[in-house]
């Protein structure tokens, strides 16, 4: 009996120890396995010395000191939004650029141009009525200064999603930074890699109760009357901020033209069913205002412009959004950098200054498709446009702000040695015997995380992660990878 009692106690004690052991998820075991795996891979002579790091720190502080406070009123403003460019995206893109473009020994030590700006901060991104933002509620926040309901733009909370009559009530419309700049006599412009009539750019002139309402056909598809709640294309012609906008560059010809019009470049019809051609009407309206207006559809036309003869410019280079940055040349489409360059040349002719809004939309598209390689390439392209904007303007009269509208679920995790390609995987296997990717999405349309036949996790070692279209496997299947709500960075100078 006594023996039995002690046996029970012993079993309970062992059980408790095992349970505690199982609960102990400390990193010491992982760390040991990892350190053994990378043993000898990075000889000391490759690695920076303490002097290097201390000099770097000293230089950072001294440059802040040299810079001092800059007390001047900015005449010009450029606002760059990387769509879906959260903090993790910025960290990973920095390494990608370092490894691919900068000739850095490892990559982690590189910087994006935006990161060299002297001021930085963080921004919350939630919508008025949702925990996680979409690009239209957040556009209303950062362009109009007021949070809005999910998937509505340029409107106050009185208008719920799809509320056509509410949209028709101008008391619910909120003004934008483009309008404020115009009231100050400044020139204004919008550059996007998305469609010119789409959110977020359109939130600068339009109030729409459903972000997809870019043509009368879109409004009608939602069962609403386009006469009551006009689309963002019509509002470009009707609303004062649209009428006064000087430069609008991006894609989206499909939504500017009517079904009767066959696009000469693509042989496909437009989407509008009211017979209206927004591009042509815009040109006529602008000719009446300045007499120096142009409508263009190709990169060669953009680069061939004599900017001293152009005050107003509409460029719509693709039927939908612009293609991925490495496919632009194929389609005679301009880079973000080129669009920003021409926009600034035209807008800066105004002695009162200008405001330019630049939207990098492809980052978001890549993340939604679980393609980390694409997302990082597009951030590097976006960063080149930031650099161009910075180089073409003077710090003494131009405020540049770079931020994002929301983040994505991509994570950036261990363990591998410094300098390992950001697109590859851990050096040690996980508990199931397979290695795991450094970048991972929580959900999305990518291939299944586990093979339904074997029940085993997908072996990423078999994948070609250098292919820009490579899609990461995901644990949670979702039609389109979800936005996420951690804070986004703001860089400013
Ligand atoms: C739309 O707004 C205008 C101007 O406020 C008003 O005259 C018109 O009746 C409204 N239309 C509808 C259908 O509410
Ligand atoms: C651009 O236009 C201006 C004004 O019409 C003209 O003086 C100048 O020669 C033109 N430049 C080029 C390169 O054609
Ligand atoms: C991986 O993809 C890259 C880029 O598409 C391609 O150049 C390379 O040949 C591919 N490698 C293999 C082994 O298929
Ligand atoms: Zn998105």
Automatic annotation (TrEMBL):
Keywords: Hydrolase, Magnesium, Metal-binding, Signal, Zinc. Coiled coil: none annotated. Mg(2+) binds at residue 83. The active site is at 135 (phosphoserine intermediate). InterPro entries: Alkaline_phosphatase, Alkaline_phosphatase_AS, Alkaline_phosphatase_core_sf. It catalyses: a phosphate monoester + H2O = an alcohol + phosphate. GO terms for molecular function: alkaline phosphatase activity; metal ion binding. It comes from the Eukaryota. Its EC number is 3.1.3.1. It is an enzyme of class 3 (hydrolase). The keyword Protein biosynthesis does not apply. Its cofactor is Zn(2+); Mg(2+). Binds 2 Zn(2+) ions. Binds 1 Mg(2+) ion. Residues 1-19 form the signal peptide. Transmembrane segments: none annotated. Zn(2+) binds at residues 83, 364, 368, 405-406, 483. The keyword Metal-binding applies. Belongs to the alkaline phosphatase family. This is Alkaline phosphatase. It comes from Folsomia candida.
